[in-house]
Amino acid sequence: MLYALARPLLFALDPETAHALTLELADAPLRLGLLRVARVPGAPVRAMGLIFPNPVGLAAGLDKNAAHVDALARLGFGFLEVGTVTPRPQPGNPRPRLFRLPAAQALINRMGFNNVGLDVFLENLARASWRGVLGINIGKNFDTPLDKAGDDYATCLERVYARASYVTINVSSPNTQGLRALQGKHELDALLARLAALRQRLADRHGRHVPLALKVAPELEPAQVQAIADAVRRHGIDAVIATNTSVAREGVEGLAHANEAGGLSGAPIRARATATLAALAAALKGESALIGVGGILRGEHAVEKLAAGATLVQLYTGLIYRGPDLVSECISACREKSRTASSASR
Description:
This protein is 40% helix and 16% strand. It is α/β, with parallel strands linked by helices. It has an eight-stranded parallel barrel with strand order 3-4-7-8-9-10-12-13, surrounded by five helices. A three-stranded antiparallel sheet has the order 5-6-11. Helix 6 packs parallel to helix 7 (222-234).
């Protein structure tokens, strides 16, 4: 209700300014001791060897610098994913780089992995008191050549390992030039082989196994889906996040900002993202967990992802249009689906 009142004011601001202001406003009552944990129905889920209090998580990108973890955790999420973080700080692409398409309940962003870098990112996490399930999304610096990208991912994995519940390998953002080439069969195989081997050494060093997830694009052909599934299976990757934003523009043609460069998210990509999720589910056959993201604006959309093969779901753009109430709505819908499925199997 409060967000419905605040939204017109926020939408009157530049989207990136509104984004930063919303996070600051979320932190304010926390600092004053006024922010309570949202009461949501329990719906625990096991995935990647972890127990999630509920299957609804925050997608990476909203809290790029892990600076608002404690406030965001109080919205009722079963898990949070922060980042994308790169080894060195970088400003990202020039502004404006975030655009609303309200008629389509969509966003276009070309942020470009703007973040404070590993050192400050980890300092921010050290100040957070929340100890729930935390995913850390890692990427490469924009000026790191593709043939050296593995160095950046390895640096990030090693540095965040001790703090992460799981680590997401982001090779699918459309806003870092050439990044999606790392989804190619040979490039992905080499990257995952390196990170899986490093993960084993880190597990021995730290005495715990941190799951790895791979975040992929929605524009995957059947052969690419199969190649990704084969690589995930071969290297013991624990989960696939389907999907990132889209470079396609179906569903927003003719709208203001529709032709801006960047990744499209929100309602227009829901069907495409869910189709990719279902294709990965068919190819993986339950051997790795799936996290469904893309176009969730109502509780039934979260259930749709579960029906397509996801164990967990993530929200981002839906929060911009619906606010925090979307979290509890999705949790309740997923809980009801689980209850119905359980009753049917008896």
